[in-house]
Design brief:
5-stranded antiparallel beta sheet, 180 residues, mainly beta, 34% strand
Length: 180
């Protein structure tokens, strides 16, 4: 017996494969493949900077990855570098707005060669709320990793907004107001 509708079957299989490909893991799903957020050409610039938009729908977590809250078991990673102390504000946004505010959160870690653990958290408050921000008013120079975490039901596009400004410190610490 031979199937009668081979062309229809081939079309169905091609459709199924293309649908599965559209739900593939984001490129920055693994820590080693963190997406860089540049703060200008030399990372010295002040202003608001944005990551590329990624789809978190098919993200996963990797073996050995620290999850601050196990309910949030899908992750994508970003990285930024500051060559001198800065005030840094981070928040996660979505486009279009389709997820619940508590579907996604983030944790910021100091630079580590391997997967960061609880002791590697930078001095930011971890947040589990879209559009809310966490900031450090005088973050030391270095490389930092942003772990964006999502609930297993979260489906949509997210991106990181990063604000870089001069650190908030005593007036006499600023170059425009030296002490005598």
């Amino acid at each position: 017996m031979r199937p009668r509708n081979i062309p229809g079957l081939v079309l169905f299989v091609l459709f199924l494969l293309s649908a599965l490909a559209s739900f593939s893991q984001p490129a920055n799903n693994q820590y080693a493949a963190r997406a860089d957020i540049m703060l200008g050409a030399d990372n010295y610039q002040f202003g608001t900077f944005y990551s590329d938009t990624v789809t978190i729908t098919a993200a996963t977590s990797q073996a050995g990855e620290y999850l601050l809250n196990p309910v949030y078991n899908k992750t994508v990673w970003f990285r930024f570098t500051i060559p001198t102390s800065r005030k840094i504000r981070v928040r996660i946004l979505q486009t279009p707005e389709v997820m619940q505010s508590n579907d996604v959160g983030f944790v910021i870690y100091q630079g580590t060669p391997g997967l960061p653990q609880a002791g590697d958290m930078a001095t930011f408050t971890p947040l589990f709320s879209l559009s809310s921000y966490s900031e450090n008013i005088c973050l030391d120079q270095g490389t930092y990793s942003i772990q964006v975490l999502a609930r297993s039901s979260a489906a949509g596009n997210i991106f990181v907004e990063l604000l870089s400004n001069s650190p908030e410190s005593e007036l006499y610490d600023q170059s425009g107001f030296p002490t005598q």
